[in-house]
Amino acid sequence: MCPVPREPELGSGPAFGADLALDPADPICATRVKEATRGRGLSYAFDFAGGRVEFSRSVSGALHLADAAEAVRRLDAKEGDPIRLVLVP
What we know:
Blueprint: H1 7-12, H2 29-36, E1 59-64, H3 68-77, E2 84-88
Parallel strand pairs: 1-2
């Protein structure tokens, strides 16, 4: 079970450059996504939440943050069968 984001975490998203911060446990989360995307929904979702989680075994590669579009292209094309690509600042 994933913990539900608390209000302070949701409210801090825009301060760190997020356009929107959502609580996935919110019953109208999908509606909020549709509203924010003018009905298109999401093609990709990125979770930059803090905490100590071990992902190293699932990292397929690392790219510089400036190459984010290339990372999305690789994921979309399934190039190299990626599981998780890490963007490095």
